[in-house]
Amino acid sequence: MSRPPFTVMLVAAEASGDELGAGLARALKRRLGDGVRFVGVGGPAMAGQGVESPFDIAQLSILGLWEGLKAYPRVVRLADRAAALAVRERPDIAVLIDSWGFNLRVAHRLRRALPALPLVKYVAPQVWASRPGRAKTLAGAVDHLLSINSLDAGFFEPLGLETTFVGNPALAREITLADAGALRRRIGAGPSDPILLVAPGSRPSEVARVGPPFADAVGRLARARPDLKIVVPVAETVSGLIHDWAASLPATALLLEGQADRESAMTAATVALACSGTVTTELALAGCPMVIGYRLGGLTYAILSRMLTAKYITLFNLAAGEEVAPEFVQDACTGEKLAAALAARLDDPVLRSSQIARQNAALDVMGRGAPDPSELAADAVAGLLEG
Question: Average pLDDT in the 289-295 region?
Fold first, then answer.
């Protein structure tokens, strides 16, 4: 007599985690077929794999100390709803994806409500960059860690948290296969016409903070370069905000919806202006040189800047041990400085080529070309289920 399907709970609270969850679900389906069903919390990517979220995860797009304090009652309420879903569905395992603050609360609730439920954290907090005390907190909250950074195991395993390094799923993507020529033809750009890609973030607070200096930089460049084409990939989590922001730009920008157009734009772009995040790794994989900007709330930055131990905020800069792509953080993130750095790259093909080569070298250090991380993560989860 065959056993009922395993029930896997996946919990993601933002766009990047939603993509990770969808990749893990696909890989588990390939391995277990009809022997697995999914419940949990996620966005549109996970919904496409059968995860029906009880609420819109856009409510959890929170960044910064003040925003976190204001949102605390909502976060607690939604963590309660996630735990209630587990109590109702009785999963065989729960995988909590990224989103340190929210998923730590979910983990505590699941541990109280379902003590025997195996808890897996997918993506560790970056304790090697700041707040190393989080390693002990996580080790006491979950049973297993799926790590996307090779640095993690040395922080968590000595504390008794079994860690499986699966690699960064972003590094497994073949973005260079996207159709750059079709995108150029679509926007009326010739093979050598300059294209600026602008990615102002995937959280409302990111768009609110980097949006103004990014818009200022775009305006400065557009005024000096009438032939410059501007493209803006739209993150679904902030679609309305991006449309409003683009409408206020002092230059016409083409908004691109969907993953295929997003990747085509990355391969076609001459240079990019990006908010720090997963998009910087994607742009590097696409062979696009970039300038990176980031801003936090004043109070949040004042506190976090005293906790940071890492020299850079961009993963491939950390891997390289140098500022391969220039970073403009907080007060340095101004339209004038961003535009100057972008102009240097638009005007100098040698500088662009050099940066691309250094980005590629850093990606190799990060593990590009390794086995598909989603498959490795699925192997680990399936092993825990079958064991």
Answer: 96
Domains delineated in the chain: 6-167+370-386 (3.40.50.2000), 175-366 (3.40.50.2000)
pTM above 0.85, yes or no: no
Name the nearest CA neighbour of 366 among 327, 328, 324: 324
DSSP structure class, residue 176:
G
CA dihedral (261, 275, 16, 59) positive or negative: negative
Specify the long-range contacts of residues 174-182, CB closer than 8 Å, at least 24 apart. Answer: 175/263, 175/266, 175/267, 175/282, 175/285, 175/286, 176/267, 176/285, 176/286, 176/287, 178/260, 178/263, 178/264, 178/266, 178/267, 178/286, 179/264, 179/267, 180/264, 180/267, 180/268, 181/268, 182/264
pLDDT of residue 1: 44
The full DSSP string for 244-276 is HHHHTSSS--EEE-SHHHHHHHHHH-SEEEEES
146-180 pLDDT, tens digit each: 999 877 889 999 999 999 999 988 787 778 778 88
